[in-house]
Input
Amino acid sequence: MRVWVDMTASAHVLVFRPLIEILRERGDEVEITAREYAQTLQLLELHGLEANVIGRHGGRSRVGKARALGSRLRALRRWAGGRSFDVALAHGSHELTVTAHRLGIPSSTTFDYEFAWLQHQLGCRAATKVVVPDSIPAERLARYGAEPPKLVQYPGLKEEYYLADFEPDPSVLEPWPIDPKRVLVVLRPPPDVSLYHRHSNPLFPQTVDFLGRHEGVHAFVLPRTEEQREYVRSLDLPSLILPERAVDAQSLIALADLVVSAGGTMNREAAALGVPVYTTYGGRLGGVDEALIRSGRLAPLTDPRALELTKRTTGSGPGSDGGRVRRDPSLMLHLLLSALAQNG
Output
């Protein structure tokens, strides 16, 4: 088969890496398009994936987003037309599903946060198949035109699939003088430029300030944008560590004692790897996070002073599978490729 994959955010590289590997190992041709946003291009390079870079993020404003969307849709249609793709796959890229629909290419989209209203109104309606976790109540997706047989649900977290073959690399810490006696924390800022996260979120800056001044902590901050990077750098707090480029974040998480994230993917990576994790997300929680909180695998944070800053026990650290769930990524791929059966 000829398969088209579009990546518009950093997490998409991680989701599709094992799926692309499976496709290519069995002889399928895969072509990748990517949008210039956050660390998407750096992560593609880090994982040895080549992509055709088409378009960039439209920024904070709705007008800027609309202009970027129109421009990218036109560019994708020019690029994909005549390439004879059999199927197109995306993680929330409504640009892919809309373009594929116009070109008559079967497509699947997958995501795990159901309240990105505009994105899903465009992406789900244009897609042939919508593949999501079964912890998202199906009735929340009906308003996007995603009902069975178009809607297909899978067990667990997407992170449990793409991290199935993952083992942490301890060398990720080598560039920095880490004191093993200090608590290692990984911090991820909120998605400030996302339309679904318009709420002011003072909790995360408070957490950065609290941990950045704590003498018993090393706190890695992994910004989404250059604006966030400059903000953290300007704080000049002694316990903060700010990598200059995309790093092996999954190894950092696996080696950490604690994760605090205002977004979704890093929270769920920590949960999949059995690492204690707090969320400072300021928007409406989706079904996946609701389920993780109910099961005790994710804790909501309201005050940074409530963080349990302790070293993880040996039994839950790297080298053991304490708390980890590994799932077969070929199942995820099978569900995505169900788009080839047009009638479900």
Remarks:
- Residues 62-80 form the longest helix (19 residues).
